[in-house]
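Morning run. Coffee first, then this:
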Amino acid sequence: MSKPVAYASPEDVEQAFYEALTKGDADLMMLLWAEDEETICIHPTGVRLQGVVPIRESWRSIFGNAKLRVEAEQLTHWQGSVMAIHHLTEVLYVGDDPSPHGPLYVTHVYTLGAHGWRMVSRHASAADDGHQAMAESIPHTLH
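And here it is:
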């Protein structure tokens, strides 16, 4: 396993995340995560994983099944002094299949610790723009 890198920004961690995903390297992927048993990863299947060991094993399983390519686009982000939240969309390509899977809505949460920025949470789920349109049609006036 490689020596952990001290990432200077959440954006650096995010870029490294997608590089590890494209390489299919679970060990490289786990260098980006906080070494905390409270870390959470929810894959698009809805499976909730807590802690570095189950998260690592899930990525090993995913990478063992097929090569992945992801097109990610950041929608919004917020950053404080020790925490950042990024909302993205992802389109996933599996193996040699040219048809896209998704889009997915993704939330990444990063924290700043002694070893730089690290991911503490990833939640990916199928995008449902129908519900978004419905939410936007509801009046937002408070009485």
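The domain at 10-137 is CATH 3.10.450.50 (Nuclear Transport Factor 2; Chain: A,). Good start to the day.
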